[in-house]
């Protein structure tokens, strides 16, 4: 269980390179994720949480350092290529699904994540029973709306669908970017519970950004805090279990001071 | 109105429908306006007419027009995806360049097909009554194009293409190469527009460098009229609606010409028809037309 699956070594990420607005977002960040880790990621706005995700996913290229997947460097792989082992769910429900395509069509697209798309029939009908089964596990009526364009779904249903799509084809690494933040408290808790169940059940390796200290403490086996482009706090296992909200709060106020 | 004119309008509508279907792929599916079509249409026409004048069989001359159209789409696609030029400008650049290339292809501003073979002069089509030649040819072409596209859009590749236009960020996060999808879409779209140019030139009997002006408005009119007339449809039905919209548009033109306008007014009229159709939703809201109609047809209780 302690085999490293993803390693970031001294990663430096800049934006607006060679302009007066040049900004260094990740400043020599080091992070080793082990297979099966469920890591909650905390940090104030602008600390570099989303930059970390964009760097891992390949939306942003790095200036120095290295990113390794199972010991092999992936820094030269494009964003599209990295989707073969990586999937993500965004905060905005609009970003995760194609609004004019139906729920089933979206799922079919996700089932082929990272694969070549060829001139062969899509075989939607054959996949329908399977889609019905897995959408039913979401317990929010999604299985009744397989033929509905996702633009007509509620935000909660859309986010549940986005999460389902991200895990439909098992990813080596799952990135959740505050995926419950845009939902009402009840729906948010339900999706969080489903998320936890599925990650535990399938033993997925996951990084989850959250602003809820509660969620960060409750879920996952490891907690990291990012500040000013570096990891400033990293606890796992029993040590994380012993962590309390008060301790985290005092840690954050230390950062501000 | 004579029956002949009506039949002619149907034939014209079918031949011009290839443009509407071509533009549908970029305007509605990829969700951006592609101005390249204003250059592709005359280039398809010029290529086809010049090729026939050089003794090439009309069928192969038409295929060449499709190829040239696809090349135009490829250039626009590369400027847009790799060159990072905004799509509107990328299209205008290719459209402008196309004008010079058309003059090179034809050697002058217009070229006639007088006494030359065309697809419409094959023995079978010539045996038909007047104007039915364009209807039969148009129906054959539209049937092939529509069936091919319906198949394509239901494949893995076609679904990736639709997803790219629907939500580019999501498509990329699922490993779809969105740049390639956009280039492919522009190539297929402009290939169809080139085909439309070749068909219209053969029907008219000539090609002219200026025949591209206002083409995008005509193609858009077929799409929008089809949508306004038939409402909520599935993707496959929408493709057919474009063809019907194209025919309806020809009838609208026929009516306004009957009202006393002449062909020089056509560009103005096309623009007004399109603007009117695109503003229909606003009018509906403003005057609550749906509500009034509903009140009109439900019984009082």
Automatic annotation (TrEMBL), chain A:
**MF (Gene Ontology):** ATP binding; ATP hydrolysis activity
Q: Which UniProt keywords apply?
A: ATP-binding, Cell membrane, Membrane, Nucleotide-binding, Transport
Q: Does the keyword Nucleotide-binding apply?
A: yes
Q: How does it sit in the membrane?
A: Peripheral membrane protein
Q: A Pfam family in this protein?
A: ABC_tran
Q: Where is the ABC transporter domain?
A: 6-253
PROSITE patterns cross-referenced by the UniProt entry: ABC_TRANSPORTER_1 (PS00211), ABC_TRANSPORTER_2 (PS50893)
Which subcellular locations apply to this protein?
A: Cell membrane
Q: Does the keyword Transport apply?
A: yes
Note the InterPro entries from the entry. AAA+_ATPase, ABC_transporter-like_ATP-bd, ABC_transporter-like_CS, ABC_transporter_ATP-bind, P-loop_NTPase
GO annotation, cellular component aspect = plasma membrane
Mind telling me which PANTHER family this protein's record contains?
Answer: NITRATE ABC TRANSPORTER ATP-BINDING PROTEIN (PTHR42788:SF7), TAURINE IMPORT ATP-BINDING PROTEIN-RELATED (PTHR42788)
Q: What is this protein called?
A: ABC transporter ATP-binding protein
The species this protein was found in:
Secundilactobacillus collinoides
From TrEMBL, chain B:
Q: Give the signal peptide, or none.
A: none
Q: Which domain of life is it from?
A: Bacteria
Assign the protein's first listed, main location to one coarse class: membrane
The protein's UniProt keywords, in alphabetical order, are: Cell membrane, Membrane, Transmembrane, Transmembrane helix
| Membrane-related topology note | Multi-pass membrane protein
List, alphabetically, the GO terms of the cellular component aspect.
plasma membrane
Transmembrane annotation, as ranges: 7-30, 59-80, 87-111, 131-153, 183-201, 213-230, 239-260, 266-283
Q: A single Pfam family, by name?
A: BPD_transp_2
A single Gene Ontology MF term assigned here is: transmembrane transporter activity
Subcellular location(s): the record lists: Cell membrane
Question: Per its UniProt record, what PANTHER family does this chain match?
Answer: ABC TRANSPORTER PERMEASE PROTEIN YPHD-RELATED-RELATED, BRANCHED-CHAIN AMINO ACID TRANSPORT SYSTEM, PERMEASE PROTEIN
Which protein are we looking at?
Ribose xylose arabinose galactoside ABC-type transporter permease
Instruction: Specify the species.
Output: Secundilactobacillus collinoides DSM 20515 = JCM 1123
């Amino acid at each position: 269980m302690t085999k490293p699956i993803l390693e970031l070594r001294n990663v430096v990420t800049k934006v607006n390179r060679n302009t007066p607005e040049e900004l260094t977002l990740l400043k020599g960040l080091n992070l080793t994720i082990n297979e099966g880790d469920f890591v909650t990621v905390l940090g104030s706005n602008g600390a570099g949480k989303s930059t970390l995700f964009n760097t891992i996913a390949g939306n942003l290229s790095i200036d120095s350092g290295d990113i390794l997947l199972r010991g092999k460097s992936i820094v030269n792989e494009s964003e599209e290529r990295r989707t073969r082992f990586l999937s993500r769910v965004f905060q905005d429900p609009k970003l995760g699904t194609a609004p004019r395509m139906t729920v089933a069509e979206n799922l079919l697209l996700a089932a082929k994540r990272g694969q070549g798309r060829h001139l062969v029939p899509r075989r939607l009908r054959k996949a329908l029973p399977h889609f019905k089964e897995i959408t039913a596990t979401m317990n929010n009526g999604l299985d009744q709306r397989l033929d509905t364009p996702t633009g007509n779904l509620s935000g909660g249903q859309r986010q549940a669908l986005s999460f389902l799509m991200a895990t439909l084809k098992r990813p080596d690494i799952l990135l959740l970017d505050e995926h419950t933040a845009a939902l009402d408290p009840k729906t948010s808790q339900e999706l969080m519970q489903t998320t936890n169940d599925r990650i535990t059940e399938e033993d997925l390796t996951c990084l989850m950004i959250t602003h809820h200290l509660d969620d960060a403490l409750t879920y996952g086996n490891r907690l990291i805090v990012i500040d000013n482009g570096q990891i400033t706090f990293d606890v796992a296992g029993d040590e994380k279990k012993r962590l309390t909200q008060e301790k985290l709060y005092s840690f954050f106020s230390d950062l501000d001071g | 109105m004579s029956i002949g004119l009506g039949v002619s309008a149907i034939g014209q509508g079918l031949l011009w429908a290839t443009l509407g279907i071509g533009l549908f792929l970029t305007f509605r599916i990829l969700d951006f306006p592609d101005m390249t079509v204003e250059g592709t249409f005359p280039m398809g026409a010029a290529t086809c007419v010049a090729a026939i004048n050089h003794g090439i069989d009309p069928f192969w001359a038409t295929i060449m027009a499709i190829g040239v159209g696809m090349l135009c789409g490829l250039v626009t696609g590369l400027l847009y995806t790799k060159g990072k030029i905004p799509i509107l400008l990328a299209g205008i650049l290719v459209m402008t360049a196309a004008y010079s290339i058309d003059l090179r292809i034809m050697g002058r501003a217009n070229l006639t097909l007088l006494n030359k073979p065309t697809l419409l002069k094959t023995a079978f089509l010539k045996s038909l009554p007047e104007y039915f030649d364009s209807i039969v040819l148009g129906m054959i072409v539209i049937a092939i194009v529509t069936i091919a596209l319906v198949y394509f859009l239901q494949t893995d590749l076609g679904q990736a293409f639709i997803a790219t236009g629907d939500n580019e960020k999501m498509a990329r996060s699922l490993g779809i190469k969105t740049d390639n999808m956009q280039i492919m879409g522009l190539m297929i779209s402009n290939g169809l527009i080139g085909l439309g140019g070749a068909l219209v030139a053969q029907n008219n009997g000539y090609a002219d460098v200026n025949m591209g002006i206002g083409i995008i408005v005509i193609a858009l009119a077929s799409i929008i009229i089809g949508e306004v007339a038939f409402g909520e449809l599935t993707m496959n039905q929408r493709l057919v609606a474009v063809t019907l919209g194209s025919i309806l548009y020809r009838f609208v033109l026929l009516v306004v010409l009957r009202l006393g306008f002449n062909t020089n007014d056509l560009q103005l009229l096309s623009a007004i028809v399109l603007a009117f159709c695109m503003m229909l939703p606003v009018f509906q809201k403003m005057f609550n037309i749906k509500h009034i109609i509903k009140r009109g047809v439900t019984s009082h209780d």
